[in-house]
Structure formats: C-alpha cells, structure tokens
Write a structure and sequence with these properties.
Structural class: alpha+beta
Mean pLDDT: 83
Order of helices and strands: EHHEEEEEEHEHEEHEHEEHEHE
Strand content: 25-35%
Low-confidence stretches: 63-67
Radius of gyration: 21 Å
Number of strands: 15
Length: about 270
C-alpha cells in the first residue's frame, strides 16, 4: 500500500479485460480479467494522518519506536448498507465520486485489499472496481479464495521471494550451455516483447552458501515504477520451464546487479 496525492495510475489492459468479460462471460475472459486485477494498482480515497511514533516489539524482544501512518478509508455502501472499498482504475473514474474530492489517493493492490479484508476486525465486505462506471465487485469470500489460489500457485511454481543482502555469500556463474533453458528464455522474451518499459534483461546463475543447488537470476533494466508487475509476468512465464530450479529476479538499478552483469550480453534488448 502506497500513499500518493497525485498518483499517475492507469489500467488500460484491465479496462479492456473488464469490457470483454462483461460482453462475453466465458472462462477465458473471466480468467484474463482476474489476472489483470492481480497485477493492477488501484486508487482508494482516504484520509491519511501525520506519521506518529508507535512502540513495537522487535524479534529479540526489545522495544523500538517506529513511525506509523494511519489511513481512514472512504467506503461505499450497497443497497443493503454493506460497506465496500472503492477501487478506481484511474483519476477519471475516481472523479465520478463526489465524496472522493479533497481526499488522499491511497494506492492499493489486490494483495493490499486481501490483507485488510482478512483482518478479523474488518467489517468491510469486499472491494468494487469503478463503482460508478463499468463496475466489477469482489466480495470478501471471493477475495479470500483468489488469495489462497495465488499462494498455492506461487508455492507450487518453485518461485519464492527471497532477499539478497550484503551479508550473503554468493557464487555467481553462467547457465550450463549443455542444458541451456531455451524454452524458459523464449517464454520470457515473448512476455518482455509485449512491454514498452523494459530496456534489457540478463540471465545468470547464483548459489548461496548452504544452498544445495544454484538458482536462476534474471536481472531486468526497466524505466517504470511497475517492478512488481514486470517480475510477476516474468515469474509466470518462467514457472512452467524451471525443471526444479529456483528462480530469482533483481532490478538492474541495484549496484550488485550492475556488477553481476558486467561484460554479459543481455538475452533480451528492446528494439529502438
């Protein structure tokens, strides 16, 4: 969840997917729409308080002071007086709601809504995309089901989110030329060719001290703020072709990444 007063959020692919799904409610269109929702960022108006110091207990049992920002969301109600988060795809949709004027833009993803809705004390019934336009409702039971499915897919794909820190002892190398992952590379290239915000991508192998097997490491040079969306697309492209290997990604902007690919030719380069 991000707070941004003037967020430049737009979701043209999702809007197209919603329109197609509402015109033809076949499984293919429904699944495409859900995939777009999973990758999208939405605007939910709210009142954001000034950061305040809060006492927290760290993993060692000590008390530390951290700054927290409180958000009071603007909710909408249906005819049964049930409350939902409004999830606007862009500023134009948000401005259709008079009550949103003068409120902060709180940037939310599907995961953010799912996290808030899973709180036992939350009495919100779900979220609604563009409630004053081509609206699509995601009731809480549906959100929880999709959240569980997403977690299961990630668990079974061989992909996990792991931080690489300065303390890690890493061995870097190149893929085995005799077992080069051609199918995986082709799938990722097909995905990257559809984007206009990725400049190049590199493939390396790395192995942490203590790991039994090496992992693929894809380093991506991109020009947008959609890292999560790009990485998700690459993960989904690579997942069917991992053959038991782990899979990691890193932005080229990280100093470690730049050093790792010095003298390495990218496997993908955007056309000029």
């Amino acid at each position: 969840m991000d707070n941004s007063k003037n967020a430049n959020i737009s979701n043209p692919e999702l809007l197209d997917a919603i329109e197609e799904m509402q015109e033809d409610n076949c499984n293919e269109n429904v699944n495409r729409m859900i995939d777009c929702v999973m990758a999208a960022q939405f605007i939910t108006p709210g009142i954001v308080s000034q950061p305040r110091n809060v006492a927290k207990t760290n993993k060692n049992g000590g008390t530390v002071m951290q700054q927290e920002t409180q958000v009071q969301f603007q909710l909408i109600e249906n005819q049964d007086k049930e409350k939902f988060f409004p999830a606007f795809t862009d500023q134009e949709e948000k401005e259709k709601w008079e009550a949103s004027k003068g409120k902060h833009d709180v940037i939310m993803t599907f995961d953010d809504y799912a996290q808030v809705l899973s709180d036992k004390g939350c009495n919100v019934k779900g979220f609604v995309i563009n409630p004053f336009g081509r609206s699509v409702a995601f009731p809480k039971p549906m959100v929880m089901s999709l959240k569980q499915q997403k977690e299961e897919r990630a668990k079974n794909s061989g992909i996990e989110k792991r931080e690489i820190t300065a303390d890690d002892q890493l061995q870097l190398g190149d893929p085995d030329p005799d077992n080069y992952p051609i199918d995986m590379m082709a799938s990722m290239i097909n995905y990257l060719q559809e984007r206009d915000d990725v400049n190049s991508a590199y493939l390396k192998m790395f192995q942490r001290e203590g790991d039994k097997n090496p992992s693929y490491l894809v380093i991506v040079d991109f020009d947008s703020d959609k890292m999560e969306e790009i990485f998700k697309g690459l993960s989904q492209s690579a997942a069917p072709h991992l053959n038991g290997f782990q899979f990691s990604m890193m932005p080229y902007s990280v100093p470690f990444a730049k050093k790792a690919v010095e003298g390495v030719d990218p496997f993908f380069t955007a056309e000029d």
